[in-house]
Amino acid sequence: MLEAKGLRMQYGARTVLDVPQLSVDDGACTVLVGANGSGKTTLLRILAGQLKPTAGTFSAPQPVLYLPQRTYAFRGTVLQNILIGMKNKKEDALSLLDRMELTPLLQKQARSLSGGELQRLAFCRLVLRDCKLLLLDEPTSACDTHAAALLLQELQRYRKAQNCTVLLSTHSRAVAAQIADRCLLLENGCITADGTPQEIWQNVPLMEDA
Ligand SMILES: Nc1ncnc2c1ncn2[C@@H]1O[C@H](COP(=O)(O)OP(=O)(O)OP(=O)(O)O)[C@@H](O)[C@H]1O
Ligand SMILES: [Mg+2]
After folding, report:
1. pLDDT digits (tens, 9 = 90+) for 101-117
2. Which ligand has the minimum distance to the alpha carbon of residue 184?
3. Which CATH code for domain 2-70+129-203?
């Protein structure tokens, strides 16, 4: 179980995250939705251990994998990027890249990829590893509809194989509707709605899809 109590992040006098209590069941896929600046990245970075909260505690299933909002590539080709620390998984890597339609790019310099290509590569690099908690910060934000569908399909496959808990942020209702067991709406750092995608959108009819 992922559990947090009294989580708060403050910059100077400004509180950007205030989550008194949060529990997420093992194996569930929970989607964080909220406008720019609502605190999605802040919450994910805290849970990933990358940001120390001003107050509060949490416990999370281990190990944790985290895909940052700004994805990056190492110097070298796409193939070299995916095999970093994973040379013994070359076959798995190649079939994963194939399912993600990245095979034609294998020998390309990873830093020359488009935004959507790079996002898919970073996701692939992550899901070759095992975890019990997967934190994904807007993993499809640069993907076109087709690439997003590929990535989400692969995410479902990974969830099944690992039986892991997933916490993912997105601006897209379509993404949330497709994969969320549960949605949390963040507004100004606070969770203001908690329910299925249908329940959230019923309560928040004006929230826009990006
Ligand atoms: N280092 C910092 N110093 C001051 N304010 C910060 C800092 N980091 C984040 N913030 C503020 O915290 C708020 C929440 O930021 P956060 O990145 O968590 O939002 P988000 O929901 O992920 O937004 P987006 O949809 O744009 O990715 C924002 O108003 C941001 O300006
Ligand atoms: Mg963010």
Report:
1. 999 999 999 999 999 99
2. 1
3. 3.40.50.300
